[in-house]
Design brief:
This protein has 554 residues and is an alpha/beta fold. Helix content is 45%, strand content 16%. It has 3 domains: 249 residues, Rossmann fold (3-Layer(aba) Sandwich); 188 residues, Rossmann fold (3-Layer(aba) Sandwich); 76 residues, Arc Repressor Mutant, subunit A (Orthogonal Bundle). It is globular and about 80 Å long. Bound molecules: 1,6-di-O-phosphono-beta-D-fructofuranose.
């Protein structure tokens, strides 16, 4: 195989483990903490999880290992979108499993949860695993978005587990996948299958975090990758001095990625979906806010700038959500066919005008025509508009341009406006994990096996104190039910892990808020540069500014 020099070097990198896991398997003991309760809806969650609710938080400490010795056959799946470090979770799990007993077996089920249902798997070996150490991607076994949530599916999983003699299943995924891990753990316990289930917190979006989970893996590397690119664009913008760059970054339900990139690069504008929703901002208000920055800078001779836009922004704009709901209704059932059969866009436009309320049509009418058409082209299998495919970076630059044209006519804006558009998402999801993610993920996997060997089920592998050097990290486990509450999903009350949105009274947002007016007018760009893998720890092992601020380290 042809390997790049970095690939070769990364194979050799030895990820750092938390101090208490370093002494070797025989020296890892358990400290049992207090019993837990769910973050809300305690009675309901307790009733739904009678076998796994209320268990104790646990921490690993140095001491003699008292885990019962038995042959372990563990199955692992990767679930959902790729996130840098996934391979290292598998490597850490494998290394701990083999260090405990060479006869233990690790099976990787392919293509995500569906691999477990289809019994499509490989058995990991040393040589196979070694090719994936410290590399990005999920290609080691692939991933998928099939949800493991029905009793029928659990029955199939039980059969597959029986066939292989599985003693445990590790699910590496986001909030939904780990919610399903908790439900599967409860099912396995209730049916005395002897199969334990452990989750690991993954997602570049950063929205699986809470008082126990300080960060989901992949967020560090993905935001560093986007920040490098944004910094490069800022430098280009500051060199050419002729473009405004509208940069959309991934993060569908929360704006953590956008916020971290803004803290790293200090752009002129960064929209935060959660703020837009809290202030019930309209598209026109958002465009007006960006136009204010363009105007002030343009009038000072600075016809360039950078605006960061979170992927999910339009869903946070109340009037836009209403418009989408009305469009879904307008085209429900047979009406899609009627709409599609109309001869041209003018006829379709009339159909839309007659079908929407006056308020929603007013919102629709200010959208650029390309976006208007997109709303009617891209439908999901249920016939709904796919909001995540809307090119919001283009939407906002068009709205800003229209606003600036007005201001030009009114004589207040004297600058020039030309825009470039970018979308950064897939560029960061499979990058070589930063040292932080390489270490964190390896530790999560290693720790997941320790939870298995000590007999725990329905737990999330937890590694905390992450703003400190790895040696001071704390490894342990938290019952997933502790992170759950009841939420309305698809018309039903469901037990779920609460998704973490950007907190508007949290330190990262407060820091941004305190600085953004200055950044909007001045050129305060910072250039993070590429992720560094070799060199001083002060450069290579840094974690995110979000985490540093949350932990009071800045
Ligand atoms: P997860 O929540 O599964 O980690 O995925 C998040 C994400 O990377 C989002 O940022 C993005 O909107 C989405 O996946 C894209 O999904 P897909 O890979 O299916 O295009």
């Amino acid at each position: 195989m042809n390997l790049s020099p970095l690939q070769k070097a990364r194979y050799e990198y030895q990820p750092k483990l938390p101090g208490m896991l370093k002494a070797g398997i025989k020296e890892i003991s358990v400290k049992v903490g207090s019993a837990t309760t769910s973050v809300a809806d305690q009675d309901k969650i307790k009733a739904l999880f009678p076998n796994t609710y209320g268990k104790e938080e646990i921490t690993f400490v140095k001491g003699s290992n008292t885990a019962a010795s038995k042959k372990q056959v563990v199955g692992v799946i990767l679930s959902g979108g790729q996130a840098p470090g996934g391979h290292n979770v598998v490597c850490g799990l494998y290394d701990a499993l083999k260090a405990t007993d060479k006869n233990n077996v690790l099976l990787g089920f392919k293509g995500g949860p569906s691999g477990l249902l289809d019994d499509d798997y490989i058995e990991f070996t040393d040589s196979f695993i070694d090719e994936y150490r410290n590399t990005g991607g999920f290609d080691i076994i692939g991933s998928g978005r099939t949800k493991l949530e029905t009793t029928e599916q659990f029955k199939v999983v039980t059969e597959v587990a029986k066939k292989h003699g599985l003693t445990a299943i590790v699910i590496i995924g986001g909030d939904d996948s780990n919610t399903n891990a908790a439900v599967l753990a409860e099912y396995m316990a209730a049916n005395n299958t002897g199969v334990q289930v452990i989750g690991c917190p993954k997602t570049i979006d950063g929205d699986l975090k809470n008082e126990d989970i300080e960060a989901s893996f992949g967020f560090d590397t993905a935001t560093k990758t986007y920040s490098e690119l944004i910094g490069n664009i800022e430098r280009d913008s500051n060199s050419a001095k002729k473009y405004w760059h509208f940069i959309k970054v991934m993060g569908r339900s929360a704006s953590h990625v956008a916020l971290e990139c803004a803290l790293e690069t200090q752009p002129n504008i960064c929209l935060i979906g959660e703020e837009v929703a809290a202030k019930k901002m309209s598209l026109a208000q958002i465009a007006g806010q960006i136009a204010d920055s363009v105007e002030k800078r343009g009038n000072a001779g600075k016809n360039f700038g950078v605006a960061i836009i979170p992927e999910g922004i339009v869903e946070f704009v109340p009037e836009f959500s209403v418009l989408i709901a009305e469009i879904n209704e307008l085209l429900a059932g047979k009406k899609t066919e009627e709409f599609n059969n109309l001869p041209n866009w003018a006829a379709k436009y009339e159909f839309i005008k007659n079908g929407l309320t006056k308020e929603s049509f007013a919102v629709f009418d200010i959208l650029p025509e390309a976006i208007q058409k997109q709303l009617f082209l891209e439908r999901d299998p249920h016939g709904n508009v796919q909001v995540s495919l809307i090119e919001s970076e283009k939407l906002f630059s068009e709205l800003v341009k229209a606003e600036l044209d007005k201001r030009k006519k009114a004589g207040t804006y004297k600058g020039k406006f030309a825009a470039q558009h970018h979308f950064f998402g897939y560029e960061g999801r499979c990058a070589f994990p930063s040292n932080f993610d390489a270490d964190y993920c390896y530790s999560l996997g290693y720790n997941a096996f320790m939870l298995i060997s000590y007999g725990y089920t329905g737990y999330l592998s937890k590694v905390s104190n992450l703003a400190k050097p790895a040696d001071e990290w704390v490894a342990g486990g938290m019952p997933i039910t502790k992170m759950m509450n009841i939420e309305r999903r698809n018309g039903e009350d469901k037990p779920v892990i609460r998704k973490a949105l950007v907190e508007l009274d949290g330190k990262p947002f407060k820091y941004f808020e305190a600085n953004r007016d200055k950044w909007a007018v001045e050129t305060a760009f910072t250039y993070p540069g590429a992720i560094q893998y070799y060199g001083p720890a002060s450069v290579c092992d840094l974690t995110t500014i979000t985490l540093a601020l949350e932990k009071g380290q800045m």
